[in-house]
Please model this.
Amino acid sequence: MRFDIITIFPDIFRSVFSGGVINKALEKGFVEVKVHNPRDFALDKHNQVDDRPFGGGQGMVLKPEPIFAAVKKIKREEETPIYLLSPQGRKFDFRLAEKLAQLPQIILICGRYEGVDERVIQYLATDEISIGDYILTGGEPAAVVIVDAVSRFVPKVVGKRESVEQDTFFEDLFDFPQYTRPRDFRGLKVPEVLFSGDHKKIEFWRRKKSLEKTWLLRPDLLNNRELSLEDKKILEELKTEKKGMNNELDRFS
Model:
């Protein structure tokens, strides 16, 4: 799996992948990250990559020639996807990350300033990707997020496949609460069920907590999946418990 990132600020990436899981994946050759400066592909002696927008307006716009030339140089196969990172793009999520991890190469173009020449969007980029409904100073932080999220699905990057499968969003469910030592921290105790040794009870408790957290924080996620009969029963119990708690609170209000 190879990521090619086109950015006018390549130094941003010098240390960002120097530690953790991604660094180990890079060292072992499971993934590659190559950073390319479009200034190296500029056509003038000043290596200019941006210019004033036609029609007037504030700021600068990234020129098309250096970006087209960079892509031509680094693109390995005709079907290699090229993504412009911009706020108007398709929302990046778990499913897209998993899909991209199946590809041998993806090219990420980091937008900057007032944007990128429209011809890059219309005639070069396969699609646009956004990591959220907010504005960044450039596409570089988004590129880091995409590389990190996609790499987790590349075989051998994460030690155990189960670790990925248990992640939030794999089932459209938030993860269950996790605890470690000490067992009692300032009077805050770990749930007793986790010390029961009964794996079925622990599994049920974790499933219930996972459903509860998802239902309370992101109920829309439950609409995207087909619930088992057991999950439906757990949710009904949670709703009954919450209703009972609300009724109890109403008595004292």
